[in-house]
């Protein structure tokens, strides 16, 4: 059948790929053929090759108290209430996804977000009311425009683990700690399409509060600390080769300093980036070097990520003040500020990059 009556399908596709991601659910409701088309991986690839794809940062971001005075710094709720917000990088537009089913009091604290195909996965965290560790998994699909419950995370209820996706169908999880604060070596992977969890080989070391990055076909787990070293971060890294389904040898001095690795991110090249003492630092030729001074308005960095030769930094000047976003061009090393409404100036706890 023709996608659009009396039009060749290649012209109809040219029309469909111009639809913005926030209209996918409406397009899918028109007819089953349109719904089937926009769900295909080929459709996403065509959007990308035609430069019609949209680049989005998905964040767990705190709500801003609407009753605060403009002269005051941001007032925190008694317990911060987080929700999923979206920042469109090309337009600077901000928006918000519907709340998770059953979580009217906000996202689980310290939950992890991952982008997979046409989906956002929100997993784990602490219940915002009871503070119990959650093993829940929720998936937001942009075609349906809704959240649905996925298969729970198996094994011990873990927190503060490393997490990253291959952006295609898998989310990888490693380390963290159990409910008794014991650091973990175990690793698992979630197949979003099958809604199934897979047990992976253990890492060589326990890694609590580690950072997970998927880069160059491999799952990198950076830093963290062992149970007996509470809060004393390691500088090492372990890398899981997905094709071989095995971990490589521990690299001892990957990081320059023994610090929390939460701002670590990987560039489109072989470089890694992080924030350190007010600078953006890059790992070039196995040596860390400062490449840019972080603007004063975001010097308390909450979140950092890269895409297509650019680096995003979200942070504030002082704790409790509005969070702002700046973009660094990784060729010219020039900063550009992204404007945002006050309601999108809350603290960012976690995030991921999505191209759709």
Automatic annotation (TrEMBL):
GO biological process, one term: regulation of phenylpropanoid metabolic process
Organism: Acer yangbiense
Name of protein: F-box domain-containing protein
Alphabetized InterPro entries for the sequence: F-box-like_dom_sf (IPR036047), Kelch-typ_b-propeller (IPR015915), Kelch_1 (IPR006652), KMD1-4 (IPR044595)
